[in-house]
Structures are given as C-alpha cells and as structure tokens.
C-alpha cells in the first residue's frame, strides 16, 4: 500500500543529476528511510544520468513510500533505446563503461526492478526494502538530570504556518506571532520566501520552494523577525490536501535549540532489542555514515556531498603542502580528475582577498576574471565558491564547488560550504597524517632496500640500471638517467626505462633528439617541459604528413609517435645527481599524459637521487681505479711469447685475489741472442700489489741483464743486489732462471739456476720423472751469493715442467699436493703435448681441493717434439 508520494521533473542539463540526487535524499530522509537513502541516491543518479545526459531528454522522478520500503520510478522520453531485460540472457554491460551502468546497479542493489514502456515514455523502476529490525527496537535519547535539560521560555512555542499551493502564507498562529513578531494580518497572503532566510545552516540540498513541494521535509533555516534579525528555526514540513483536494503545506517551526520537540530521530541499524542509538557525530551529518576509512575515499565523498549540497556541476578539494605554499589537487567530481590529480597551485595567487586560499571566495563569473581559478581553466565552469580547511588556525586545504552558469553562488553559499569545511577539516587532516605516516614508513623501507641494492655493486652500468628499475614504476612511469663525465663535458643520455617495454625505443629516440636538461646543482625537483613539447611537435608533424597523403614518406607510423607523445605528455621533473660537491648527472622522471607527481613522491625521489648519486660516483671511481690497476698489471705481464724453433712452450698463469691480473708469481720467455732464449719462473713472497711491484722489477731486470751477455749466475746475483736496494720494500724471491738452445739434431740444451725455487721436473719418454736441477739460496736475503748453473739436455719427447709453490702447496685440510703428488701427475703425461701437460697439472690442482686457490700459481711446460716419421 502506498502511504506517500513525491514527484519532480528535471531538464536535460548536467546539473539536473545533482538536483535529482538531492530531491531523492531529502524525500527519503523526510520519510525516515535513512537506511536506504544511499542506495536510492546512487541508483537515481545513474538512471537520471542515462536520461538527461545520454538520452538527452527530461527525466521524471517519482518516489512512492510503502510500509516496507520505497519505490522510485525514473521516466524519460526516449523509448526506442534498447534496454536488456532480466532473464533474457543478454549482458547488462560493463561497469567500466561510461553509460549503461544503471541497470547493472539495479540488479546489484535493488530488491526488485524492471522496465515499463509506453508509446512516449520509458520507465525504469526499482524497489528498496527496509532491513528487518528486532521487535520493540526504538530510538531514544539518554536519561539526563533535570538540571541539564535545555532552558526554554515559559512554554515551548510551536509556530504553525500553512502555505497554499502558490507558496503564500494562509495560516499564522499565535505562537508564530510570539516567535517572529509579526501579527497574522501582516504575513497572510505573502510568500514565505519573503521571510525565510534560506538556508541558515548547511546540509540543505534544495531551495525553499522545492522543499515546500515535497511530501515531507525536515531541516534548519532562518526566519527574519520583525526587528530585522534572523531567528534560527528547525522546521518540519508536511504536504496535505484539504477536502476540496487543494494541496498545501503545513510547517511546524520551533527555535533551533528546541528542535528535539519536532525532530525525527535518526534511524540507525539495531542489532539487539533495546540497544541504544549512538550519538551522531556532526561530521557524519555532512559526510554520511559510515565514513570511508581511507583518505582518498573520504575526500571523494566530501566533494560529492559538497557538490550536491550547493547543487553544483563540479567540486574539488585540495590539500596544502607541509610548508603551506602550494595546494595539491586530491579529489574532484565533474572535472577531468585524471588530468588534474596532484596538480599544484600556489596558496597566494594574488594580492587581493580572493587571491588567497586562506579566505573564502566567491566568483560570480569566471569569464570576467579569466584565470582566477587556474584549476577550472578550460572546464566550462563559470561561477565558483571556495573555502579554506583549517585546523587550529593552520591552513590544511581548500574546498570548492563550481557551476556551469554564472551568478549561481553568493556569500550565503560560502557560509554553508565553510560550515561543512569546518566539520570535515579535522577528520581530513587526521586521515592525511595517517596516510603520510604509512607513506613515510613505506618510503623508509624503500630507501633501505635501495641503499642495500646500490651498495651491492660497483659496476657503473649495473648502478644505472638499478637506479632506473627502482624508480619505474614505483615512483614514475618512465625514467632517464643523464651522466656527466667531467665539468667540461655535456650531459650524456646513459639509460632509459619505461614501464611498457615497447615504449623504450621511441622514448630513447625522442630524448636523443632534444637538448638535455641543464645540470643545475640546486637540490630538489624542477619541472622540465622539453620532452612533452618535443613529443607534441613530433606528433603534430606526423599527423600533418599522414593527412597530406601517402606521397610523403613517413619514417615511423603515427601510432608509435602518438604513443610516445602520450607516454611523456604528463609532468616531467629533473633531479640533480650531486656527489662530492659536483653534479655528475641528472635523474629524469616522467608521467603519462596530463598526470602530475604528488609532493611526497618527489621528496622520496630526492632522497633516492642523493643515494644513487653517491653510488654512481663510487662506481665511477672504482672503474677508474680498476682501469689504472689493470693497465699497470698488464704492463707487468710479458708480451706475447715468442715461437721457439723445435720446442713446444705452454704457460698457464693464475693470480690470486679478485680483480688481480698479476700477483707475486711471474714467468717470462724471451730471445737473448741468435739461437738462444731466456726463460724464468719465479715467486715473490706474498700476493697483491706489493708483490707485483717486485715482480715487475725482477722480470725487467732479467731481460736487461741477460741481453747484456751476463751468465745465469751473474744475472741472478745482480738481481739480488737490486732487490736488496729496495730497502723496507724489498721481498725475498725464489727464481728458476735458464737459457735454452735448440739443437739441429732435434734436442735442446738448457743451462738452469734454481735459486730457492721448486725444482724443475724432467719427464722422459719412458715415463720416468727426475729433478732437473739442484736447490740453491733464494734471492733478497743475503748480500753475497755464490750461484752456479747446471746443464740439462732434453731429448725428443722429453718434457721440462716448471711450477711455483702455488701448485705444490695446494691444500685440502691437512693434506697437501706436494712434490710427490706433482710427480705422480706428471708421470701420467707421457706422450702429451706441452699444452696438454700444463692443462692436466692445472686440472689436478683444481680438483685437489673444493675451495678456490688462495695463492698465485704459474705453470711453464716445455717439450721437445719427436721427429715425424715418413
């Protein structure tokens, strides 16, 4: 059974959607159906949008109250539109589509719904049932002592004012005369709008005329008394008909502080019989209940409620930065939010009162003052009202509502919006601080991980890759790193990364064609418009060539060019990479089309850039020192070994320690004079650079002395003196030096001196192994040495193996390869070439222990090949 009805029509304009939402909300709240208000408003908004925006017709909204719920009917004048019905198997569409979501929402939220057709109308209706409640559940206020009850006059006066169908006062009782000071004959016949100060408090979604036409309405406004003062009242309007069927509205009015006399209690869900209703927070009067838990949800609902409250076409909310110099767009409705989100505007935009976001402002026509509200440029909005959000006197944000028509707002709307802003400011700031705390905790974790990754490598290219991979997509959509070799060099594009790998090549090509950003050492992010401007011009040129016809060749398709333009069309910022008081590069971060960075992300990027700059400079210094070290070490190694006639020679050298090419072990083979060759293998005490220095001294001295014609013992004696001359830097040295003469009969004659070095081993063709020299004193210890050389003849097929102690002292626990182990390995090398012998010895050393070798190692194998048989 229908117990009440309310109807309204709405023109096919954008603001009708907001007006329809307000109509349904006020009607259902007046009926006491707060439980279903939110669902009804959502469904009505979608259905009216379909009618007035997508169908382009006016919309009729009818609300019907029943004992168990409410039925809302939305009719438009476009019955030809195809509407999928329930049960037909047709898809209701995607919720991501711009239109067509109304029926999908009906199916999800409504108890029942359907579509009715007439020759001129199409009507979509939905039914919302009230939730079941426990029997006996009531809403009641708490019991309080009499002394705390509100104070009234000698008696509570309830003004009864009846308004006829034209909006004029037809009844004015005695209490109305007492409250407002007007006798009945002065007001009867005059419109109520002559006395009503509408509205006095926020929360009113409709005008006084619309409220009088609703079947039930309740709320606050003001009545101008006979003395000119505005008296705050709380009113309850009820639409009735007399015996002749003439409609009129009965208004019951009390002083606002006595509203409990006629105010309908808020209905809240009750889970148990007799449960007390909770106190309604003033914040929830505006924002609704339950309030969103996340900041973005809270801000979005705030702008939607603000727009509905002032019947605007759009609304926006901006939050102030920590230093209160800029405002950052955080939520919008009715505006291209994706384009404006996180855009920043200055707090003080001008010298006048309306140029500061710290004061309420009303602009009746933005066409007269273009640019007064930069956020609304190009949006079609004409009038706007903005108010500050303040907490304890500190500016925390700004809330604004705008309309497409001029002159929509006055100071009264500014007051209403300011009241709403005061109610939500503290909640918004609390949610913002909570979000900021979560972001800072996440930022700290991010920076710790970034520091660990950057500290884990000293490779320049890997550092560049890590810098880009940490920023994309966490901080930005794309990233480019420029490096500067020295103060006289121009920035060089070193690395480019985009979250979409298919965009990297196009982005790199675009950045390569434009001048790099200036290497300014000033800390902080600065905006760089170069990529967006270049991409826009490239897209424009490509589009013009495409439109010009196929006769003009196009190097790349328009699709790729436009995709690149969209990828860099948003905000681009540059952060300097400063290390050791020098700009070594720039970190460039970018967003896609019309997107902006939020302030917290820029601060995090600045922290990351400082760490990345130091890591990049450390990698540069390490690379430079490694290059110097490797160059010096390579200078200590002998050049390419000469070819010795009728003798196979193979050398294997391994320096201990990461990054070392030369250690304390060394070898050499060089021509002395016609037909004679010198060879050496030695071991300086210790490893690393200090040992390598003595290595270089020994190798160069050996070559010089041997070519001067000195014998083997004389060469070593003079080398011993040179080592001792090094003083504290000297180190003792074991050395095997020899001279080799290939013979015409296929053999080879050697003269060797073994100064403290592991003895050379001779492998004969029959598999026997014997030492080829006797041990003598090592070098670098005693001043006077008496050394002698020994003659060795290698027959065809014989092998001479010379090694350093890194081979014989190879250990596994308490076991050591030793001289005997080396002999065993060499015994099995009969018939092998010199290269095969050296490789087998190395393999035996590596397999002897699982751990890598900790000492330098050199292996020199010489073999006299057997004559080839015909």
Keywords:
alpha+beta
Which helices and strands appear, and what pairs or packs with what?
Layout lengths: L1 E9 L4 H17 L5 H19 L3 E8 L2 E8 L25 H8 L2 E6 L4 E8 L29 E5 L5 E4 L1 H7 L3 H4 L8 E2 L10 H6 L2 E9 L5 E12 L5 E9 L26 H6 L7 H15 L4 E7 L5 E8 L3 H4 L3 E3 L14 E3 L19 E9 L2 E10 L7 H45 L4 H12 L6 E6 L8 E7 L5 H10 L12 E2 L2 H18 L10 H10 L4 E8 L2 E9 L8 H38 L11 E7 L10 E9 L2 E9 L3 H20 L4 H13 L8 E10 L5 E8 L5 E3 L5 E3 L18 E5 L4 E5 L1 H4 L2 E2 L2 E2 L1 H10 L6 H15 L8 E7 L7
Antiparallel strand pairs: 1-2, 2-3, 3-5, 4-5, 6-7, 6-11, 8-9, 9-10, 10-11, 12-13, 12-17, 13-14, 15-16, 16-17, 18-19, 18-22, 20-21, 21-22, 23-34, 24-25, 25-26, 26-27, 27-30, 28-29, 28-31, 31-34, 32-33
Outline:
With 870 residues, this protein is of the alpha+beta class. The protein is built from 20 helices and 34 strands.
Write up this protein.
With 870 residues, this protein is of the alpha+beta class. 32% of the residues lie in helices and 26% in strands. The chain contains 20 helices and 34 strands. The strands form 7 sheets. It has a 6-stranded antiparallel beta sheet. A 6-stranded antiparallel beta sheet has the order 14-13-12-17-16-15. Strands 1-2-3-5-4 form a 5-stranded antiparallel beta sheet, with helices on one face. The longest helix has 45 residues, at 411-455.
